[in-house]
Amino acid sequence: MRHRIALRVGLVGFRIGSDWRAPIAALDALYRDYPRADFAHYSVRLEAASLARRWLRPAVRTMGDYHLPDAAPLALAHGLLAAEMGMNLQVALGHRRHLLLHAAVVARGDRAILMSGVSGAGKSTLALLLSQRGWRFLGDEFALIDLTTGLAHPFPRPISLKNESVALIPPDRLTGPLLSGTPKGEVRHVAPDAAAVAAMDEPARPALMIFPRFGFPLTLQGMAPTETFVRLTQASTNYVALGEAGFRALTRLRAEVPAVALDYPDGEAGVAAVESIWSAL
Amino acid sequence: MRAAETLVALLRSPERSAMLAPETWTEVVCVARAETLLGTLAHRLDGPSVPVAVQRALDGARAEAAEVRRTALWEAHRVARALAPLGKTVILLKGSAFVAAGLAAGQGRGIGDCDILLPRASLDQAEQLLLAAGWDWLKSDPYDDLYYRRWMHELPPLVHGERDRMVDVHHTILPLTARPRPDAAAMIADAVPLEGGLAVLCHTDMLVHAAAHLFADGDLSGGLRNLWDIHALVEEGGTQGLEDRARHHGLSAAMGRAMRLSHALYGTDVPEPWRHLTPLDRLYRRRMMARNGWGRERRPLTRLGFYIRSHLIRMPLPLLARHLWIKWRKRRAAAASE
To answer: Chain B contacts of A1, Cβ < 8 Å?
Structure first.
């Protein structure tokens, strides 16, 4: 492809090719502190939706090793979002070396919190706020749980903040352009702090699982093992495909790591609650 | 060397892996994935030293293939169990057969549907048994249903409601409207029984089926993988009796092409007459290699040609015209009602 970049995030190498220069330039800037990959496990292609759409109202179709056949093309101005979604998709559909949980991960030292929830539960925002308070950021999209050691491997991609959360971005952070009118509303990507990127080869031991829910009065509840199990299966994109290895990794997590459900009204209360649970461990 | 050529060279001679640059590995892994050959490549490269990051990608492919194998065997046994009242052995075809029989062709292979072969007279009862055991029709369209039952070599595909796995129940290996008429009764009679009410085709029939599938049906999508099946089968079981068996089934032309291309691409050990490509073979090779280092399809005209050919060899022209006319009208009607 005409324009390309190869990036390494933790254990995963990506190659992104594009018919246009702009999305690659945006990636190059946002991933400034990341190593460039020698070898890419996955390839993402940002292709013109049709020959005419390369120049005329350019539209990006996200293709790659894995793609969604009925995904709607995005405007070229949203090319960075297309690339990020493409990278997520490769991992979600292709990765088999770890149990994947849809979760944000932060750590203190080598002990980690997994925060798992549906889109809009506030896990990205919580991870960003915690990373501002001395927590190491390991990722806001996927927790990669090693199938034999049970360790969480960092996958610290830029955080994508949406709509009201965009205002929470600290001024000193490296960000992507503000993308308006995307299918997800207003989106802005924030690069993790340099320390998180520098430590992206150091795994951490899961010590706490939180299932957060944003926008509710503050409540904290323990979680029955059965419910934790079901929530984890729902949070995993490759639990079924991994077969027995996935079952073992997931039940081990359930058995070894305490889990709580946290409802919180706003970011500040959420961060305070997470830190108080942590110190009570 | 283009990425598709490098992939073929690596499958043929894994020791070449020591010479590849990281960027070449990226392209090879990408093309292998697109051709559903990554698991096979991972098995071939089990041993020689490859870069650590590449090894990780291959580990993932091996793990995936192991799980694919397990679920395919499980599904085959579920199907056999549902069909037990038939009193016939269930003959597995393609990938499921390779792993059930423990053949090298099954190592690392992707397996989608569970393809089985039964005597035509048992098909109605088999369908009822599968429906009763939790499978259901995928297509609800009456014309598609009729198309399958009248002209195809299989029942309309059935999907299991809970496991979401498809079973394709064949009564022969090519559409009834295609020119070659393989002897399905002989295939069934000579099948090799396994445990659990299952069986696989005998070695020569496996090769006849693989050659028919690749060169007498379809547009050569996934051709490199299907040709690898043929290579691995020959390497393991030889070519003894192959020519006669192919002639018996009316598939000598497909078999000759399979042997010549398998030798040319993968270095398969075949008798002398099959060691030289014809000019037409070269066109097939061109189609099989039509993918670039980004996993994208190349050579749109060659592809289109083979796509048109796939329809022409499936049925006589008047029938094809009628079929396409009905499909076109249905599509138009569907678009208008949206």
So the answer is: 294
